[in-house]
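Sorry to interrupt, but I need a hand with the structure work. Please put the record directly below this note.
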Amino acid sequence: MRIIEITPEYRKTVDAFIKEEWAGPMIVSKGIARDTSILPGFAAVDDDNNLCGVVTYRFEGDECEITTLNSLMEKQGIGTDLINAVINIAKENHCRRLWLITTNDNTHAIRFYQRFGFTLREVYINALEKSRKLKPSIPLIGMDNIPLQHEFEFEITRP
């Protein structure tokens, strides 16, 4: 497994993946829509160059936001390696904060982020009501049949 920057030759594959996983390329968090097809990122690929995971990110001032993160295989270190790639780029850009948003139904990710070292910074109650106005395809029920309602913001300061 290796981590590579999303290059033009991988962009179509990544965009198709994000469309499948996120109904992308538009994603919404904190009431703001973002087009992932223009964001930088990293891909995890196997020895045959098959896509195994993707992370996209964006900079705003001295902060870096992980906008999407997906791994096709759990417990293989893919998510960890992708986050570490973003941490390295955030350090190179002198970011004081790395952060991300996940939803209340994503209990697997919530556990993962905390084990990784992210701290829960804020919970946005009923944030998905506003997000659905921008992206009506966001479902009402999420993973494990949990009502999809809130956003959790996690951060690492001085990554």
The chain has a mean pLDDT of 93. The domain at 2-157 is CATH 3.40.630.30 (Aminopeptidase).
